[in-house]
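HUMAN: Would you supply a protein with fold tokens?

ASSISTANT:
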Amino acid sequence: MLTIRNLKKSYGGNALFEDADLQINYGERAALVGPNGAGKSTIFRIILGEEESDKGTVERDEWTLTGFLPQESEDVGDYTVLQIATGQAGEIEKLEATLKNLEDAGTVDVPEYIEAQGKFDALANPEVEAKAKKMLRGLGYKEADFERPAKEMSGGWIMRAHLARLLVIEPDLLMLDEPTNHLDLMSLLWFQDYLKTYSGAILMISHDREFMDALVESVHDIDNHKLIHYTGNYSDYVEQRQQNYERQNQAYKNQQKQIKELQDFANKFRNVSSKASQAQSKLKEIERIEKIEKPQAPKKPFRFQIPDPPRGGQKALTLEGIHFAYGDYKVYEGIDLVIEKGERTVLVGPNGSGKSTLLKLLADELQPQQGKRIEGHNAKIGYFSQHRAATLNPNNSVLSEVLEAAPTLREDEARGILGSFMFRKEEVYKMTKVLSGGEKSRLNLVKFLVDPPNILLMDEPTTHLDILTVESLILALENYAGTLVFISHDVHFIRKLATDVIHVNNGEAKRFHGDWDYFIEKRGGGDERGALTAE
């Protein structure tokens, strides 16, 4: 279906990858992984013909229909959600123009024509609207949203509409670049289940290890400018990569020991007439040895110690008899909750059950209609949401924003922490006003970690973070001396951190005094990701 041979790509003399080979077969599910900046999205652009390689070939079966979901959406004009999902937002017109141009040129037997015709036929199908509505519902849209102008919605919701159109077309090769970034947990679970039975092949770039574990059967890792193939899901890849490194490192050490012994013999006896020929023979033997390169160890998460926050009282936060409603919609009627000092508590429950509302009540971001919110002694509260752009000074650089948050921090320390959160080299001098939403989210996360509150409230902190950075955050929060309450759909993140689980549903918050495995056991086992949204 797709074969890449001897691919090489460089920017400014620096090679991203070279001699890269990759093959995707019909029906295969594969992931392309590697650190930020390794060249994953570049390989996608080369496959799609949007960028040229320096060397090598990309071959696709001419009848293969390819569909791609980028990370960012283009301008949607005045089109509705349903028009985007059915291809009526300019997609059909573009395909018609492509077909006409190729027909006029007499080139109807080329892959471009075959692909355009396949996509046009899928979107011109009389059942396209019913199919699109099914996809939109699965991705979290309500019926009332179908005719809404897409420009009224957030970028994440617009991306879901584009994803729905892609699923309507049903390409033979589905290429996904961070597809879960814009999905809440319910739509993510639907999407994951849908892909399990998808008839085509899938090639994805993702930072969601649970998503990859559930779907992929092979992993291609861009490591040290090489593309290395592994069989199995993401967890299998991590284990195999470590085993490969240990095996290669041992072979390197054994060879170095052998070379040293030969060299020592030659050095010792080269001036001894009776042994000079043997010494020369040892030197020639060294020359004949095919040298093993010292392998690079797999990259490890960045470790840094969160400074100790101010000491607080035993009862960090208390809610007593809280009533809260959005208009006529009652979320809580008389809820009581105590958050104890040092707890690391995750809030789980169905979509719309009030998890984020409860976090905002704890943060004093929302005021209840009735009841009391009581802060513990010396409470210093930090609330981390995905909408904190307003807290950044638009005239500050990334680096100065962090140094202002923690004046005692050295610049090299600040740069090290920023590097682990994907602000590298000259990027630390970017002005905060030009940062993307994900970059602003990551910068706010760094600010919390360098000047921590003693009560940290976090809503989906791992969004926009790659896997290595998530591990860095976990390591930091494991040693955090304050109190943590968070919402996440990252099971790995939850398992590593949560000491308590609160299940939110039907206006109630039921506490489970134990970690994530204890909660799953009490719930009777089953799918762990599904348990995050179970009623």
